[in-house]
Amino acid sequence: MEPESKPGSANMDEETYIPEVMQALYLPTGSYDKAAPPPPDRLIYKTDFSVPQPGPAEYLIKVQTAALSPDELSWGSTLDAAAQRDAIIARDFCGTVITTPIEDERKRGGPKFKIGDQVMGVVTDVTGRDGAAADFVLATEDELAFKPRNVTAAEAATIPLPALTAWQALFRHGGLDPEGTSRSKSSNQLRVLITAAWDHFIGMQALQLLRSRSLFPNGVWVCATCASARNAEALRSNLGADAAVDKPDIAESFRSHGWAPVDIVLDCVGGWETLKRLHPTAVVRDKGVVVSFSNPAPEAVMKEVMGKCGPRTKFLSVEPDGKALERISELVKKEELQGGVNKVIDLFDGRTAMARVAEKAGIGRVVVRANAG
């Protein structure tokens, strides 16, 4: 993607004022039970949170918008962080580069992202760093991409984490090559099953990636599962699924419709019972792969599944990948991938925003606005 950036500059713009404190939405320090996550009203908003200090390889980003996730307060990384300190939430964001990494001053051409560039990104690990529900956030080069100009800051913030999760599920854990799929002349059409695609934004992003002609010019047969006949029709008519299953017995649905088993299963649900339903040969072919990104996958479940289903079951934890984020940004620019905004709420009303996420009212993601664009 052609950089939409300003001319190179020093590590910090001398005219940019960086305050010592900022507004932030955080989970206060405490001991939390992962089996019974804290409710939204445990979150605290304050205006005197210390502005983070970037390390040698980190950018300081002034946050415009940050997107909240349904599992925000149940992620092990969030609760582990809150056990040690007040932990700012939200991993996806859109904002403006304020300072660049000190170590990049010695690089030929300087940092990839320049001061003043608009970027979207994801904090891949919140155990050691804070999230983006604040005025400022830290990120590395591999966690950023240029914000496409054809989307708003709110929509841009909804994309990075779910799209990167779906991307890595397909191209890292699913064994596909993004360059190979775009050039493939094979007559064998790839077949993919996505569980709970309507209820999980990751599933919706995965469906869009699979429908991208840039990535899959030969097309992909996609089946998605959901909870109702109404959602099944929406998956087919609105999101382009070839087939949809709204019954719990997935194998029986495949057999009764005469569908051939799939090559890859992207599992948004997780848990032993769900994974058990995905492994019959009627659902996934021999040597096919089941990739689960349900968070968190209990250790006992992982051991049981791996013991009974073998190495074709993989559990995904998102890793920094700047090249993938750049490709995702390009797909957004081509309008082959879209985000989805449920509602934009100001950061100071963050509890209300998180409560709306918990209600699961409507499609799209709830976004908090930290600074005006």
From TrEMBL:
Enoyl reductase (ER) domain ranges (all copies): 38-368
Name of one Pfam family that matches: ADH_zinc_N_2
SMART domains according to UniProt: PKS_ER
GO MF term list: oxidoreductase activity
The name this protein goes by in its record: Zinc-binding oxidoreductase, putative
